[in-house]
């Protein structure tokens, strides 16, 4: 009798807890959407920001975020592919492999601010790349590599050994078996992992404030020569991203409409991350179907 | 004479490709390892300057409560890091402690109480919570939590408590999803056996499921703590950034990360003020290692028991 | 067990032998899975490897084209065209082109039927479109699959039935025109009809290929093979013509095994 009552009570508590968690998410999203979405307009999304007066947009920051994201992925994807191929296909179990895995694990659990500080020391100061897109992309690469490597490794591991044997038995090198058979077969889950990590990179700020910098100089969107100073493609210019922008205007507190701009920016960030999440699933599933379809 | 025989004796295109591919992939892996070593090298080197160049004693650094690096006292700058260390630990412990019951409860809903609907609803909730960037948490903290604290407790509203609430939501999904993994790895047969003996669901959960999942849950908690300890911007936005001992939960305080984010840009490389910040970064690094070590220890313990 | 308890048939002429193992020992760490096997594989014949589960048939077969590299440690020699396949100067990839293998579970690549066959050919330097087309057709005909797939060569191979997929794997292997074909229980995942088709395919192939097949299906071994080797606990206890092995085994262990008498 008593045990039954306790059981009922405990179940009630568990339902309450889960309800609170759901409620927290609804309130969070609700707050951001309700506050942020009304701010969104074409001019908000495309015009440059105003530091001291109201009515500025986030155009440059949005572009910077996307540009940095693409550069980061371009640098980190090949490295992560190579590293995960070695780990999953070549590394023999043993002390060295264990150490390497531990190192990657440590890297993945480092606070992103530490990664940013390292990026500052190495790329900005040591390599004299100053606060720039390159410095930022390199720092984000360091931030992104361990998780991306692990997710690609998981994707490779999920492909049956039968496929590897099949390639090897035909006299094909392991390398080509992996790159031409295993990797394509793993593409659906690799793409999902890639997009999810893109979401993480897109929202990252702590690794960027001392690498890509906190300023967004005006850009001339008519000039696509990467060597010109006002070209959007110039990788040597400082580039405040959307996430950094939210942090900056809130901690400085000089922008009169900081709250409104932040809410709008936060809404954009969330929507982009949501899109990434959804497309990761959709694309993963579609690619998988495409791959196995007759 | 024998063409086949000859072909087997000459290095093939495949064997060349194989060697090249293996080296190429090893190079990629090696570069990640080099980055890890470089991070530790650089930050340790910078972080030790406070003690070697600026002659601050380690015990003063760790136990001093005055943080004023631009002021020198008896030959060494005033860099007592205890306020930030205390702030970091306090905020981490409070946020994690608050998150644990919610995380375990939510995880239980997904594994034992209503596995189907629970997972269908809660899994996306967790994924969304993880996906929200930390500056967004900071912004919501700043516009919702801080004013709420101000209304309830007076003062500015900035402080450890605001940080705790923000971090609570941030570590919740981490701990929950890892706890779910721990709970699902408890064999179904354990549950059936317990239920068959007449135990109620709660008794089964409490006496069997949670018990055998303890190492996994502990790992989840340490992971959450590591995330909380290293979180920078969200905390920095709500904690108040006063380098004072956190005597009150609702008065401005600071953490290692918050001082670092605000400080690095305002100091000049090579000065004592700057060195002191790198020492804080070193503490962060060491703590991150410590959390890692703890996770390994728990994992080893757990596997020994089986 | 001494050699006295074994009967191993030897061939008179070197011409008859495609592959020969000498004192082949295979270890998984400390565990000796094959102890000192001396076996001559006859050319253009089907040799069946039979024996209880865990007796080392797969282990033996896989080491014949070095698929055990990095998994097991192999000692002794495998002679092929006056070369020891275990020696350092052998290019394993070129060697495996000559000694192909088909596995228990059909493992077509997630590519089209056509690409499944051309993929390895291209890797081995055959890129002429006409030759590729030709080889694909010949291989599929030899594997008795051509009529079933000729209209869907560009469809995914993953849509094939188990039996078709297995024959595709055989086609893929013979498209390389190897010397020797190693098959590890190729029919064990197939239904009786697919199995019969596969057996017919193998019998037709033996005019051009030396075939070694591991099987648990004794009637199958009796139907298709010319020679049979019986493995027991890592030892080749008997190797003889298939008829002899099944009707008048020389060794008691073999007698027990082929008559299903495990008492
Ligand atoms: N990768 C491996 N690592 C360690 N031991 C192995 C490995 N593969 C096989 N063995 C062992 O070697 C012995 C021979 O195995 P093998 O697979 O060659 O047997 P088999 O005759 O092919 O059996 P089956 O008819 O079941 O396929 C067995 O005792 C097995 O446990
Ligand atoms: Mg076998």
Automatic annotation (TrEMBL), chain A:
GO terms for cellular component: plasma membrane. Residues 62-280 form the ABC transmembrane type-1 domain. The keyword Transmembrane applies. The keyword Phosphoprotein does not apply. It is found in: Cell membrane. The chain crosses the membrane at residues 12-34, 66-87, 99-123, 129-148, 258-278. Coiled coil: none annotated. This is Phosphate transport system permease protein PstA. It comes from Paucilactobacillus wasatchensis.
């Amino acid at each position: 009798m008593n045990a039954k009552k306790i059981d009922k009570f405990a179940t009630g508590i568990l339902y309450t807890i889960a309800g609170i968690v759901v409620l927290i998410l609804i309130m969070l999203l609700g707050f951001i959407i309700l506050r942020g979405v009304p701010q969104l307009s074409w001019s908000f999304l495309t015009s440059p920001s105003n530091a001291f007066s109201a009515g500025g947009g986030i155009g440059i920051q949005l572009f910077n975020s996307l540009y940095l994201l693409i550069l980061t992925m371009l640098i980190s994807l090949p490295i992560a592919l190579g590293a995960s191929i070695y780990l999953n296909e070549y590394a023999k179990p043993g002390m060295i492999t264990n150490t390497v895995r531990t190192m990657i694990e440590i890297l993945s659990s480092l606070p992103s601010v530490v990664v940013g500080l390292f990026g500052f020391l190495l790329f900005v100061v040591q390599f004299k790349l100053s606060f720039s897109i390159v410095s930022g992309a390199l720092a984000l690469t360091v931030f992104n590599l361990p998780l991306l490597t692990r997710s690609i490794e998981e994707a490779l591991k999920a492909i049956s050994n039968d496929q590897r044997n099949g390639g090897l038995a035909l006299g094909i090198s392991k390398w080509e078996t992996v790159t031409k058979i295993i990797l394509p077969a793993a593409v659906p889950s690799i793409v999902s992992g890639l997009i999810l990590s893109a979401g993480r990179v897109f929202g990252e700020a702590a690794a960027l404030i001392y690498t890509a910098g906190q300023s967004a100089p005006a850009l001339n969107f008519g000039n696509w020569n990467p060597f010109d100073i006002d070209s959007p493609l110039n990788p040597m210019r400082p580039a405040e991203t959307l996430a950094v922008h939210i942090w900056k205007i809130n901690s400085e507190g000089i922008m009169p409409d900081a709250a409104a701009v932040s809410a709008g920016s936060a809404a954009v960030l969330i929507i982009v991350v949501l899109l990434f999440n959804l497309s990761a699933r959709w694309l993963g599933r579609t690619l998988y179907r495409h791959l196995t379809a007759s | 004479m024998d063409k086949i025989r000859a072909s087997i004796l000459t290095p093939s295109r495949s064997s060349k490709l194989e060697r090249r591919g293996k080296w190429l992939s090893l190079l990629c892996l090696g570069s990640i390892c080099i980055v890890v070593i470089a991070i530790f090298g650089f930050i340790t080197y910078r972080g030790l300057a406070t003690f070697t160049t600026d002659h601050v004693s380690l015990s003063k650094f760790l136990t001093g409560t005055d943080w004023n690096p631009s002021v020198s006292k008896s030959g060494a700058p005033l860099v007592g890091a205890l306020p930030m260390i205390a702030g970091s630990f306090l905020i981490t412990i409070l946020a994690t402690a608050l998150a644990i019951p919610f995380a375990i409860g939510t995880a239980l809903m997904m594994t034992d109480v209503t596995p189907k609907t629970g997972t269908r609803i809660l899994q996306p909730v967790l994924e969304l919570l993880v996906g929200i960037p930390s500056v967004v948490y900071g912004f919501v903290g700043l516009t919702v939590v801080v004013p709420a604290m101000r209304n309830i407790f007076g003062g500015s509203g900035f402080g450890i408590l605001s940080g705790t609430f923000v971090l609570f939501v941030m570590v919740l999904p981490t701990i929950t999803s890892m706890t779910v993994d721990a709970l699902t790895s408890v064999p179904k047969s354990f549950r059936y056996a317990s239920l068959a003996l007449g135990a109620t669901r709660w008794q089964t959960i409490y006496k069997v499921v949670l018990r055998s999942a303890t190492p996994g849950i502990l790992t989840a908690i340490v992971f959450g703590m590591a995330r909380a300890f290293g979180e920078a911007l969200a905390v920095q936005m709500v904690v108040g950034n006063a380098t004072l001992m956190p005597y009150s939960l609702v008065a401005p305080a600071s953490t290692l990360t918050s001082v670092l984010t605000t400080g690095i840009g305002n100091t000049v490389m090579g000065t004592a003020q700057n060195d002191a910040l790198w020492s804080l970064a070193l503490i962060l690094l060491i703590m991150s290692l410590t959390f890692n070590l703890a996770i390994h220890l728990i994992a080893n313990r757990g596997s020994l028991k089986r | 067990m001494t050699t006295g308890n074994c009967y191993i048939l030897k061939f008179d002429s070197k011409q008859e032998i495609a592959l020969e193992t000498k004192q082949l020992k295979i270890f998984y760490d400390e565990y000796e899975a094959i102890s000192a096997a001396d076996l001559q594989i006859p050319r253009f014949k089907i040799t069946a490897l039979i024996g209880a589960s865990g007796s080392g048939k797969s282990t033996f077969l896989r080491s014949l084209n070095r698929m055990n590299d990095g998994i097991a440690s192999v000692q002794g020699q495998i002679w092929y065209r006056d070369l020891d396949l275990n020696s350092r100067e052998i290019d394993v990839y070129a060697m495996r082109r000559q000694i192909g293998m088909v596995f228990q579970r059909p493992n077509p690549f997630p590519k089209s039927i056509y690409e499944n066959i051309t993929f390895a050919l291209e890797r081995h330097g055959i890129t002429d479109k006409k030759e590729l087309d030709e080889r694909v057709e010949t291989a599929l005909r030899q594997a008795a699959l051509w009529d079933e797939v000729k209209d869907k060569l560009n469809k995914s191979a993953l849509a094939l039935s188990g039996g078709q997929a297995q024959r595709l794997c055989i086609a893929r292997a013979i498209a390389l025109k190897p010397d020797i074909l190693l098959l590890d229980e190729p029919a064990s995942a197939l239904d009786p009809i697919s199995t019969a088709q596969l057996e017919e395919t193998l019998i037709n192939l033996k005019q051009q290929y030396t075939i070694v097949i591991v099987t648990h299906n004794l009637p199958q071994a009796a139907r298709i093979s010319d020679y049979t080797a019986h493995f027991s606990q890592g030892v080749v206890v008997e190797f003889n013509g298939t008829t002899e092995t099944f009707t008048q085994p020389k060794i008691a262990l073999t007698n027990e095994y082929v008559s299903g008498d495990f008492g």
